[in-house]
Amino acid sequence: MITMSVRLLIVDDDERERIVLRYVLEQIKDVTIVGEAAHGLEALLLCQEKKVDLVFLDITMPEMGGLETAHKLKQLKDLPLFAFITVKKDMAVKAYELGALDYIVKPIEQSRIEHTIERAKQQIAHQDIIEEMVKSKLKERIDLILESYRDYEIYSNKLPVREKGKVSLLNQEDIIFCESQGKKVYIYTCDGGYPSNYTLNELENRLRSSNFFRAHQAFIVNINFIKEIINFGEGSYLLHLENCAKDIILSRSKAKLLRQKLGI
């Protein structure tokens, strides 16, 4: 048996029937009766005001009968389980078509009610497990997204480079390649090279990934300037660039990624 408290709502227009059902429920462990309703509309209001796990519904009630009430319950944001307790024996099919947990014919017996409550516990536990799994998967997804963007910032198309007491704003589309030379990183355009205080990792995050590619541990290249890819032997390649006399090394580990990026 599953140990958990089930919050119940009793709905019956006959006060005597409500008293009998309440007495039976009070003999059962792990049950909390959160309220009673004499008609369907009152039941709907109580379900909106309180947390209800299971509604025991009579079918024959004035104004809004049990079947109509069940239909309305299914439209609530926090849908409770519902079971019918009635003198009618011929409405079970319609009840189950609406999604009823159970259909109990009066006079009620405690063992029968206990069985229904145990089934409710199983469904609630199952739903809790599913919700926990969904939350866990969602959290994993959010954590993954946050991790990938942790060191990422959105910048303008301009790349600021400090030099000789001034700051030059380079257009990203004018950058041909970036190279790490010892402890210094240089950014090359058609106008020449600019020493920078960036690391290649910082530039890799800052430059637009659609245009720039980390070809080697020491190079980032603007793929729009790649003119030729030359086989250098043993799986290594050289990149010939437009408007640039320097050849860029393409490492073996990066060659396949570049081919995919270029659709080769």
Would you mind describing this structure in some detail?
The chain is α/β, with parallel strands linked by helices and about 260 residues long. It is built from seven helices and 15 strands. The chain has helices at about 15-25, 40-50, 65-75, 90-95, 110-150, 200-205, 250-260; strands spanning about 5-10, 30-35, 55, 80-85, 100-105, 160-165, 165-170, 175-180, 185-190, 190-195, 210-215, 220, 225-235, 235-240, 250. The strands form four sheets. A five-stranded parallel sheet has the order 2-1-3-4-5, with helices on both faces. α3 (about 65-75) links the parallel β3 (about 55) and β4 (about 80-85). The longest helix is centred in the middle third of the chain and has 39 residues, at about 110-150. The radius of gyration is 35 Å and the shape is rod-shaped. The protein starts with 5 loop residues before the first strand and ends with a helix.
Number of domains: 2
Q: What's the N-to-C terminus distance?
A: 62 Å
Strand content: 25-35%
Largest sheet: 5 strands, parallel
CATH architecture of the largest domain: 3-Layer(aba) Sandwich
Radius of gyration: 35 Å
Pattern of helices and strands: EHEHEHEHEHEEEEEHEEEEEH
| Secondary structure category | alpha/beta
Strand tally is 15
Fourth-level CATH superfamily of the largest domain: Response regulator
Strand order of the largest sheet: 2-1-3-4-5
